[in-house]
């Protein structure tokens, strides 16, 4: 009887594929069984030393003089302020104000703040509304200009109890530049003993 030969053979060659895969897996197992030193030596087997590099001398580090140690005395200054040994420089605070007319010496504001000019008259705005304060300032400055006063002081407070902040202080700056700008040469926050941040010195121009 004659044997029929099948045309479709899906598993043909399967044995050879499995044997080859088994061989590959065993080969990987062999590689993984090697130590790190053995793998490293194999990888570096063709590495050769470059003898020319032996002639290159290592560079010497530059001679850099150490920086002088600087003590940060900010904590000491803050401690002295808290203890009352040192006063806060008002000119370093955000509440400090100053202004100088163009072509006037800029150091005039610093001298004014230090109290180097004698205050000839002053006005206190405490307890006044904005409208009342502007009326009082208008009358005060007209009289000061008529009297040819050189330096005056306005006490406006710091607005610490006001929800809106220093309302009168801000109103004073707007008033000076709006209503009496041609008569104002300079202004600056008063010194500690004369009202500090709650008062402002103003220098007027004579007629």
List the helices and strands and how they pair.
Elements: H1 14-32, H2 36-43, H3 74-83, E1 98-100, H4 107-113, E2 121-124, H5 130-146, E3 151-155, H6 167-179, E4 184-189, E5 199-204
Parallel strand pairs: 2-3
Antiparallel strand pairs: 1-4, 3-5, 4-5
Helix pairs in contact: 5-6
- What is the number of E strands? 5
Q: If you average the pLDDT, what whole number results?
A: 77
* Largest sheet properties: 5 strands, mixed
Please bin the fraction of helical residues: 25-40%
Largest beta sheet: what is the strand line-up?
1-4-5-3-2
- Which series of helices and strands comes N to C? HHHEHEHEHEE
Rg is 44 Å
Give the second-level CATH assignment, the architecture of the largest domain.
Answer: 2-Layer Sandwich
Low-confidence stretches: none
**Percent of residues in beta strands?**
5-15%
CATH topology of the largest domain: Ribosomal Protein S8, Chain: A, domain 1
Number of helices: 6
